[in-house]
Specification:
The chain is mainly α. The protein contains seven helices and two strands. The protein has a two-stranded antiparallel sheet with strand order 1-2. The two termini are about 35 Å apart. About 25% of the residues are buried.
Length: about 260
């Protein structure tokens, strides 16, 4: 629009053009999905690990007197904590892989780095990522539903304690609220032969007022939210990888015609 005579201004405009070119090659959908995936996985893994440890303490203190009654639950907690370590490592590496694929495909779309021709190997890799991401989304949907079970249990437990407190304020008879119980065996946390397996009356209300209960409840809510964020990131990944694969197929056919 106007003649530029200052050399420093020409250099600045060149840097600006380079920055715009680089920003145009950023896969913003994959980048957002990666950030969501890392945040959700970290929240799920840390909160889930700590919540499982607190759950074992609560069961041991209040719901089961014999260690043989909750040995299966303790083994499940131990093994699932190891699974959490593996999940954290896997999603960290998988997020980097999907982000790299997004950068590659976005650069191909924008054609910022000269002539581009998609190869059969790149299209095969992109299709593999679509299939793997789809399978992971289905698996994580089951994990998300499974994470809702302890949240539902603790929500019912808190609601039961609220009922006990109301009955305790409205009547002086112990029999009025002693029948209100929370049975862990109904949620398959303990076998049916576990003793006592349930907590009733003011004992249950006292547990609900303890720091361990609120801490465990909050941790399970955080783990549930983390699983939801991770599931959202997988859906976003699925959309991005499917679009990237479609673009590579289009560029591949275009190259064959040329």
């Amino acid at each position: 629009m106007f003649p530029v005579k200052q050399p420093w201004l020409c250099k600045a405009l060149g840097c600006y053009d380079c920055c715009v070119r680089c920003l145009g090659a950023v896969p913003y959908a994959s980048l957002a999905a990666t950030l969501l995936c890392y945040a959700g996985t970290a929240l799920f893994c840390v909160s889930g690990h700590m919540a499982l440890a607190q759950t074992e303490v609560l069961v041991e203190m209040h719901f089961a007197r014999n260690i043989q009654d909750y040995v299966i639950l303790a083994s499940f907690i131990k093994y699932f904590q190891y699974v959490i370590y593996g999940l954290a490592s896997f999603f960290f590496l998988y997020g980097i892989l999907l982000l790299a694929e997004g950068f590659y495909t976005t650069s191909a779309i924008k054609q910022k780095f000269g002539e581009f021709r998609s190869t059969q190997c790149s299209r095969c890799l992109s299709l593999t990522l679509v299939i793997v991401t789809y399978i992971l989304a289905i698996i994580w949907l089951a994990v998300f539903a499974f994470t809702a079970i302890p949240v539902y249990f603790f929500f019912n437990m808190e609601d039961t304690c609220h009922t006990i407190n109301i009955l305790a304020e409205t009547t002086t008879s112990i029999n009025q609220h002693a029948w209100v119980c929370m049975d862990a065996r109904q949620y398959s946390l303990l076998p049916w032969h576990a003793m006592p397996g349930k907590v009733c009356g003011m004992t249950l209300a006292a547990i609900c007022k303890s720091t361990e209960f609120f801490w465990t409840y909050d941790l399970y809510i955080a783990a549930f939210a983390g699983a939801g964020v991770t599931l959202l990131s997988l859906f976003l990944y699925l959309v991005a990888t499917t679009y990237n694969y479609a673009v590579l197929r289009f560029l591949g056919r275009k190259a064959m015609r040329c």
